[in-house]
Design goal:
The protein is an alpha/beta fold and about 425 residues long. The chain contains seven helices and 20 strands. It has an eight-stranded mixed sheet with strand order 8-7-6-18-19-20-15-14. The protein is globular. Bound molecules: fe (ii) ion. The site of fe (ii) ion (FE2) has 6 residues, from loops.
């Protein structure tokens, strides 16, 4: 009798031990550096384990396998030899236990470089606050994209408040977007001042450890070699993610119009061959929302020293956050002064077919600047709101943007947290 009891207790203890040792996924999976033929699947476990990914075009037959025997908690698995613009379902785990595959867990490879396929991009700024607005903005995009999912996701910085800490990324970013988007949407982020925790040294913030940026020209952009800034070609659009916070070892920042990042940006824009260009970063050159570009030096310097590059290389759209509002300017050239110096007769360069419908002629058109910083945070108004250069401004509703981009047409929607399209514009080339 005693012997049997001891055996039973021993068995129960062993079961507990096995269960206790079975690694639990505590973050992810999430997709990084997705290219036409490859991608990185990342996740985190509570205890070190091996990594295994099963992958396949058919949910019930995941025949591709990638194994990494290293015992780690930060799992970073590259899957390669994939076909462009294809959906691959996947499951993750270790050599003993695999998660169940599901319809929502997939990696869709980027279009082949040069592909003329239309792409849909979701741009989100200043979101990771844990606010009701953040959740409402997410819900509005889930609903807006129900019948046509985004292909790529770009972040405009201030991704996790208040200091870009690990636990803030977990509670205010991963826990909120995990099921709807992290496990199936290709992410190309940019950092903000809150992600840097108010510092300017990229060796410190968790942002640079959590994300794997395509810095080697994997998607056709000019290699940057550093994770602060990079570019990718996605369908017919050249996406350039730059870093307004970084102070280089030389002491220079991008806003000075000098230094490694500025030089890279100039070379990258010059090398681009695609018809559409979006440059995105955190601190906007023009805003009168929760930040004031007339008085804040980073924003003023950005406008004076970097905007001329955007004009020179005919960037279509410059996207930023930082100011917790939405502001969209006319297509502009040569307006590098304060708000009151804007003169529509001098600074607007656009051929308008209908309201908010631009047709780019042989002389090109001005650059459209958008502040899209109410993906979680919301509100703010400085003197002279709304800006003279603004076509549409909103500091009452949160929201985020959806772009549909094909070879000759660029369509933008700003979708409010209530699910309404409050701003909409089209550019044709
Ligand atoms: Fe900010």
């Amino acid at each position: 009798m005693m012997h049997t009891m001891l055996k039973t207790l021993g068995f129960v203890f062993l079961c507990h031990l096995i269960l206790a040792q079975s690694p639990q996924i505590i973050r992810g999976p999430y997709l990084q550096s997705v290219t036409p033929n490859s991608g990185i699947i990342r996740w985190r476990t509570d205890i070190p384990s091996s990594s295994q990914v099963f992958l396949g075009e058919n949910l019930s037959n995941l025949q591709l396998k990638v194994i990494d025997n290293q015992q780690v908690t930060e799992h970073v698995v590259t899957v390669s030899h994939l076909k462009p613009n294809k959906k691959y379902f996947y499951s993750i785990g270790d050599l003993k236990n695999m998660s169940t595959a599901s319809e929502n867990r997939y990696l869709k490879t980027a279009p082949a470089l040069g592909s003329k396929a239309s792409v849909r991009i979701w741009a989100l700024g200043d979101f990771g606050s844990g606010s009701a607005n953040q959740k409402a903005v997410l819900k509005s995009i889930v609903s807006f994209t129900e019948t046509k999912r985004p292909d790529a996701w770009i972040w405009l910085g201030d991704n996790a408040y208040s200091n870009g800490k690990e636990e803030e990324y977990q509670a205010r970013v991963f826990d909120i977007y995990q099921n709807d988007f992290f496990q199936n949407l290709n992410l190309y982020p940019a950092p903000g001042n809150h992600d840097y925790g108010g510092k300017h040294d990229p060796s410190l913030p968790p942002y640079f450890k959590i994300f794997s940026m395509p810095v080697n020209g994997e998607l056709g952009g000019l290699p940057s070699g550093v994770p602060s800034y990079y570019s990718v070609n996605y369908g017919q659009v050249h996406l350039v993610s730059i870093d307004t916070e970084l102070i280089e070892p030389s002491g220079l920042q991008l806003v000075s119009g000098k230094g490694l990042q500025y030089e890279w940006l100039e070379r990258d824009l010059k090398a681009n061959k695609l018809p559409w260009v979006i440059v995105y970063f955190h601190k906007p050159p023009y805003s009168k929302g929760s930040h004031d570009s007339d008085t804040e030096s980073d924003m003023k310097l950005m406008r004076e020293n970097v905007n001329p590059l955007f004009e020179k290389f005919k960037v279509d759209l410059v996207l930023a956050g930082h100011s917790h509002v939405y502001e969209r300017t006319h297509p502009m050239r040569g307006h590098f002064g304060i708000n009151s110096s804007f003169d529509a007769s001098k600074h607007v360069f656009a051929n308008t077919k209908a309201p908010n419908h631009y047709v780019v002629g042989k002389d090109g058109q001005g650059v459209i600047y958008v502040v899209n910083g109410s993906g979680g945070q919301l509100g703010g108004q400085k003197a002279e709101w709304p800006m003279k250069s603004s076509v549409y401004s909103n500091n009452k509703d949160g929201g985020s943007m959806i772009f549909d981009i094909s070879q000759h047409r660029f369509e933008a929607h700003w979708v409010s947290s209530a699910g309404d399209v409050k701003d909409h514009f089209i550019i044709e080339k």
